[in-house]
Amino acid sequence: MAIHKSAKKRIRRNNRAKDVNKSRVSQMRTYIKKVEEAISTGDQKAAAEALKAAQPKIQKTAGKGIIHKKTASRKISRLSKKVKSIAAK
After folding, report:
1. Cα separation of 36 and 75, whole Å?
2. CATH assignment of 5-88?
3. Which residues contact 19 (CB under 8 A, 6 or more apart)?
4. What is the pLDDT of residues 24-34, one digit of tens each?
5. pLDDT score of 2
6. Burial letters for 33-43: b for 16+ Cβ neighbours within 10 Å, e otherwise?
7. Has residue 84 got a pLDDT over 80?
8. At 1, is the pLDDT very low, low, confident or very high (cuts 50, 70, 90)?
9. Are 28 and 58 in contact (CB under 8 A)?
10. What is the 3-state secondary structure (H, E, C) of 32-84?
């Protein structure tokens, strides 16, 4: 257990940051799920719009350091590939 005043403050700050980060990750996942749902319906236009909305959320999450930048890039790349594959069908 923390004894110093600064250590107690740090615990409070970490808990607030944890809550904010958890919220941002949850929001990002929601946007990703919307893209995947649009892909599963086969609607290329809706999937492209959902991806256009999800991309900034994913990049912002990476920019804040919540997820790694390469992880964000990989997620965007894979979603883009899936959206493009709908057009080919």
Report:
1. 12
2. 1.20.58.110
3. none
4. 999 999 999 99
5. 83
6. ebbbebbeeee
7. yes
8. confident
9. yes
10. HHHHHHHHHHCCHHHHHHHHHHHHHHHHHHHHCCCCCHHHHHHHHHHHHHHHH
Predicted pLDDT at 89:
64
User: Given pLDDT bands bounded at 50, 70 and 90, which one contains residue 87?
Assistant: confident
- Residue environment code for 53-67, b if the CB has 16+ CB neighbours within 10 A, otherwise e: ebbebbbebbeeebb
8 A C-beta contact, residue 24 and residue 71: no
Helix (H) or strand (E) holding 26: helix 5-41
Q: Which residues contact 2 (CB under 8 A, 6 or more apart)?
A: 8, 10, 11
The single-letter code of the amino acid at 33 is: K
CA 80 to chain centre: 14
Token pair recorded at residue 61 = 């999450």
Q: Where are the domains of the chain?
A: 5-88
